[in-house]
Amino acid sequence: MNLIADRLDRISPSLTIAMTSKARALKAEGRDVISLAAGEPDFDTPRNVKDAAIAAIERGETKYTDVAGTMALRQAVCAKFKRDNGIEYKPEEILVATGGKQVIFDAIVATINPGDEAIIPAPCWVSYPDIVSLAEGKPVIVPCGPNQGFKMTPEQLEAAITPRTKWLILNNPSNPTGAGYTAEELKGLAEVLLRHPDVWIFSDDIYEKLTYGIRFATIAAVEPRLKDRTVTMNGVSKAYAMTGWRIGFAGAPVKLIKAMDKLQSQSTSNTSSISQAAAVEALNGPQESVEAMRVVYERRRDLVVGMLNKAEGIRCPTPEGAFYVFPDIRGCLGKTSAGGRKIDSDEAFCLALLEEQGVATVHGAAFMFPGHFRISYATDDESLKDACTRIQNFCAGLK
Question: What is this structure's pTM?
Answer without folding.
Answer: 0.95
